Amino acid sequence: MNIVIVGLGEVGRHLAETLAQQQHSLSILESCEPLAHELDEQLDARVIWGNGSSVAALAEVNVPEAEVFLALSGDDNANLVAASLAKALGAQRTIARVHARVQREEWLFDLRSHFHIDHLFSTQRLAAVELAKYVRNPEGLLVEEIARGRIEVQQILLAADRPVIGKPLRELGLPARVRIGSIQRDGRLFIPTAADTLAAGDLITVFGAPAKLTEVLPQFRADALPESEISVVIFGGGEYGFSLAQMLEGHRYRVRIIERDERVCRQLSGLLNRTVVIQGNATSIQQLKEEQVGDADFFIAASDDDEDNVMTCLQAKNLGTKYCLTLVHRRDYADVISRNSQQLQIHAAVSPRQATNRDLMRYITHDRVTSVLPLAGGAEVLEAVLPAQCALTGRAVGAIQWPEGSVLVALLHGSEALVPRAEDVMQAGDVVYALVASQAKSAFVRLLKS
């Protein structure tokens, strides 16, 4: 693919290395002259020193021919301008990195539509999403998110003592906009109908908003009792810790943040409604004992210091915390911790770089239909934007004869994401997500192109 990257900080450099190894045609525009020269020597890519907000510089890296354009600098405004210009110049797909604060404001103003940018992301939020997955389902087989993080996907192995065993799906009384998308039984995966029943040992894939899934999980998992309160302690009140607390607070999570800086504590107290903010030093074993961290279900180290994160996790585990998660910024540290997680007794280590890389690689494809989540059994979740001329545009979901072996599991309209119902009408520009068995993929793609 012909790919252009503007701004190569830590996140962009990690992605550029991956893309170069995959033999993509890669052009890089970097505003720091010494870094541009360094990258030119180290990467198998065309590197030019220039400003991503300059039309002349964008033309020099042949942005009009770009299949994917990524603005990855640390400056929100520069990224928005560069991606908007790239789209106007003819780049097929544009992606811009922004601060998590900007992404949280999307419900107030649709920046994507205003700047004609296909995708906005923040490394802080992507890392927080990864951490939140482990909290919501620490022993789960799979916990992922689609539709810009607004729809959660969980796979659950059904035990024989669950009340849903033997019942048709139509009788389960699932909340609105929660769907069982697939059942894997005896090595065979199928898309169930309302008349299909569940059996012990089934591996089911469930889709829904995170809050909705929290309500329904007790039917499928004995360890997901709704009345049980889960205690979460977060070390670090920076953007990572704040984003994570905002995702978790409420429902059945009792969240506390330990932060050293008094000013940051005051800000957090004003922004978070149901999170207890504690000014203190989580690297102190005495502080951890005073806050009874050993009694917590989760201790999550989300500061900017990798060494402090790892050491506080070890201390919390020694005090008795059930699950310890850590944020790790350095790639080599993340690899070491992941390989030695059992010995260190750290349940998971999340790298912002790797979380970002995984998210962005979904867009590096020649196809209009993108695979965003492969599943065991040969199925996958596909993402596609509905063009104006598509036969599906303007029609209700229930009026479509979907190919056998496929089911629509999410619909993204502007900033609103939902698990669709039969009466929902699809519009041009909507992003659809479908769970598609391998034998149905060709028919599903043809339907989108009709």
Please sum up the structure shown.
With 450 residues, this protein is an alpha/beta fold.
Describe this structure in words.
By secondary structure, the protein is α/β, with parallel strands linked by helices. It has four domains: 2-121, NAD(P)-binding Rossmann-like Domain (Rossmann fold, 3-Layer(aba) Sandwich); 126-219, Alpha-Beta Plaits; 230-357, Rossmann fold (3-Layer(aba) Sandwich); 367-449, Regulator of K+ conductance, C-terminal domain (Alpha-Beta Plaits), CATH 3.30.70.1450. 32% of the residues lie in helices and 25% in strands. It is built from 16 helices and 22 strands. It has helices at residues 10-21, 33-42, 55-60, 76-89, 100-104, 111-115, 123-136, 210-216, 239-248, 262-271, 285-290, 306-319, 331-339, 341-344, 352-360, 441-449, and strands at residues 2-6, 25-30, 46-49, 68-71, 93-97, 119-121, 142-146, 151-157, 179-185, 188-190, 203-208, 230-235, 253-259, 275-279, 298-301, 323-327, 348-350, 369-374, 380-385, 406-413, 416-418, 431-436. The strands form four sheets. Strands 3-2-1-4-5-6 form a six-stranded parallel beta sheet, with helices on both faces. β7 (142-146) and β8 form a beta hairpin. α7 (123-136) crosses α15 (352-360). The longest helix is centred in the N-terminal third of the chain and has 14 residues, at 76-89.
